[in-house]
Amino acid sequence: MPMTKDPLTSRINTLSLADQLTQMENKSSAFESEVRTLPLPTIAAFTQTGTLAPVSFSPNSHTLTPDQPDIVTQKLPHLFATHQGQILKADTPLPTLTGKRIAVLFSGGPAAGGHNVIAGIKAILGPNNTLFGVKSGPKGLLAGELFEITNDALNKVKNLGGFDFLGSDRTKIKTREQYEQVKLVVKKFALNGLIIVGGDDSNTNAAFLAELLQSEGCTVIGVPKTIDGDLQAGAWLPISFGFDTATKIYAEMVGNILQDTPSSRKYWHFVKLMGRSASHVALEVALQTKPSFTLISEEVAAKQSTLGEIVTQLGKTILSRAAKGLNYGVVLIPEGVIEFIPELKTLIQTLNGLIASHETDLQILILTEKLTFIQSQLNAEQKALLMSLPEAIKQQLLLERDSHGNLQVSQIPTEQLLIEMVKIKLKELKSKAETWGEWSAKELDRIMQFKFASNSHFFGYEGRCGAPTRFDAAYTYNLGLIAGSLTLTQQTGYMAAITQLDHDWQAIALPLTGLMGVETREGESTLVIRKALVDIQSPAFSYFVSRRSQWATQDAFCNPGPIQLWGPTSESLPFTIALNHGLSSLKFRIK
To answer: What pLDDT was estimated at residue 2?
Structure first.
């Protein structure tokens, strides 16, 4: 039977090659054109009437409790009293609502699926309500840079990666003047609701704006976004959007490198992965690819492992593989691990304080003068540690701090630090090889002949704006449906969330007040949404521990390949989520 011709292919084939290439401009590659057509399944609650419709929300009998309720009561009295920690569940369809004016903004770094959040909000608001987009994140909100979003505009970015439709930034809205400016913008555009798509800091901002704007009749809803995976709340919020796409992108690249190592047979690749405050990304990529060595920051902290102990362990792994003729491997490193190593954590905290308290004086000094001054302020132990670090690392530790007064760890080449220290350690271990292992004469000879060669990588921005996986595409669209419904029902101070990812997705809303904790920032106790760290007692971490010695001593790696939007792995969840929530398979089921 002859194959049916694809109309698109037939049309393109009538054009010259130059014209074909020109038609691919402006997000119109064959891939982008096709991916826009992928269907977006919806949670059953939104189609109870046979067509897409917003729903009401009611308490589901479960509650969330903040770490320090007294502080939450003091800082967010209206929200805390209103929420009483109750989780809401999707309920009955709403009657037709008209005339509502809702705005949406992105806050913080991009994550795959953001455009589908907007598509979900727009779809659930319907034609009788208005959706505004805020340009350039919180900064654009303060400037009143709002525009009406149309279906035609959204159709061009549906199922595509990035935050470019609106743009984003990291402005913190926290001063009295900023709050008053937000009120003016809300009044100017007569907004009934504001939806903030962001991570833990952005959703903390959403909580304070909800408290502020309740008197203005404007609700505020948060949507959980971060590729780091540290915005979780157990079964109620298994994962934030963007994590699945980012980790699959990183896993493909790490898998490619792992495949290269036994091909060239001479390099150790040190790969730093995004994840400042938590190691979810590193753990997920390790589970997907099975590399020779993976650091998990939370384990380092729990064991109080020193830098010297880490380097020694890594050096022994490298030489143990060399003894078997495996002169290569891959090391995965979370970008924030440097802040989990006890002596470095203490040093960094001291440096943060010194740089903050002497900011004016340090601004006029060149780098070498800064280093001399800082050294004079340290105790003998910290000074010795600082001086033992490679020159490039010492300079990086003195860089300008972020808006919270903290070291910008993504700029610290931790992978280079470990490479330099491992080079030194390997010489020492070689000289004492007979004392730390039982080697045959042949294995010992291989160890002595081994020459360490390395390459370093940092996979960060590569994972933030890829086209979303099938999971992230559907997840974000449904988060948008939830967020839009919550604004229409005038709920405020909640985060849109989805539970039961393996079957019959359930639309819920989490009280932002119930997710709160207290952190020390710029020397002060600050109310923020809690970060979820890797639990070293979790099923995912336990499985990793049970297998890593095998991965270290033999080539057990696998290459997961590129993200599939069609095919056998297109409906898979992150490994860590499936393991930690006791699912029977990797597949997600919306309904």
So the answer is: 42
Is the pLDDT at 8 greater than 70? The verdict is no
Determine the Cα–Cα distance for residues 310 and 334; give it in Å rounded to an integer. 14
pLDDT digits (tens, 9 = 90+) for 52-104: 999 999 999 999 999 999 999 999 999 999 999 999 999 999 998 999 999 99
Determine what percent of the chain is predicted with pLDDT higher than 70: 96
Q: How much of the chain, in percent, has pLDDT values that exceed 90?
A: 84
What is the location of CATH 3.40.50.460 in the chain? 245-332+413-463+535-580
> For the domain bounded by 68-242+468-530, which CATH number is listed?
3.40.50.450
pTM: 0.93
| Integer Cα distance of 587 and 141 in angstroms | 39
Residues with catalytic roles? 228
How many Å apart are CA 195 and CA 119, to the nearest integer?
13
Q: How far is CA 348 from CA 35, 237, 312, 343, in A?
A: 45, 32, 22, 9
User: Comparing C-alpha atoms, which of 155, 37, 154, 48 is closest to residue 104?
Assistant: 154
> Given a cut of 90, is residue 561 above it in pLDDT?
yes
Q: So what's the pLDDT on residue 3? A: 44
DSSP states along 396-441: HHTSPP-TTS---GGGS-HHHHHHHHHHHHHHHHHHTHHHH----H
Straight-line distance from the first to the last Cα atom of the chain, in angstroms, rounded to the nearest whole number: 36
Considering the four listed CATH numbers 3.30.1360.70, 3.40.50.460, 3.40.50.12160, 3.30.70.940, the one that applies to the domain covering 245-332+413-463+535-580 is 3.40.50.460
CB atoms closer than 10 angstroms to residue 535: 13
**Residue ranges of the chain assigned to CATH 3.40.50.450:** 68-242+468-530
Range(s) of the chain covered by CATH 1.10.10.480: 336-411
- Tell me which CATH code domain 336-411 carries: 1.10.10.480
